[in-house]
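Subject line: Sequence and fold of a protein, written as structure tokens
Enclosed: The protein record, placed directly beneath this head.
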Amino acid sequence: MFRLRTVLRRITFADVHRLACYLVEEPGPEAHAAQVKSFSVWPLHYDNDRWYLTINAVNDSEQWDRRINDRLAKTPHLGTDIPLVEPRLHVARVSFSEIAKQSPRTRQRVTFVSPTTFSRNGRSYALPDPVLIHRQLARKWNLFAPPELKWSDETVEQLCQTVVLESANIEASRLPNLGSRVGFVGSAEFRTEHTSAAIFSSLWHFATFCGVGSLTTQGLGAVQLPIDERSARTK
């Protein structure tokens, strides 16, 4: 147990972000400089003397897999002095078109499994604001989805005008190594009208891949849906 605590102190959110960007992003400075990423990272999981890193992305291209495998072969490190040992890539393919075909829903229960935080006016905002969450998810969807699956501003605005936070059971969670930032973990249920049910359902399945809030490539903002509603995941 002592050794595990020692290792945990050597790994920061920035270490996780750096490794994920190295493995996933295309060559060149443009992809790395992008403020919004096409992938997210779940919190590091330690079990049986091994670290497990889960990288999520909506992707059905084998080129993505080849790029990661090529970089894993170069023995990247997690943190300053922790090499990856026998790294393996497990891929469950999913595309934007598959997510867009989810059955419409007017209610969605969500579990925030890692601290979720937003930035508003330069300050940490740690509440499951329904409009903020859905507007951000729709913006990210439209940034990376193929043209034929993008949603109009009117469609997104209709959702944001009708979505409400039905219930929440959350608690604050301070974020070490991130200054004064505060996040929240727990569960919440959102509701919308039937006219927005299709985009509402698709966005929450998309959220399980892209994360919610800020710093989703550092292990924050990871969400889960009830087991019977989950689609395939990319790891």
User: Anything to note?
Assistant: The helical segments are 2-10, 13-24, 29-33, 62-72, 96-100, 130-144, 153-162, 197-210. The beta strands are 39-41, 45-47, 50-52, 55-57, 107-116, 118-120, 123-125, 164-174, 182-191, 223-224. Residues 2-72 form one domain.
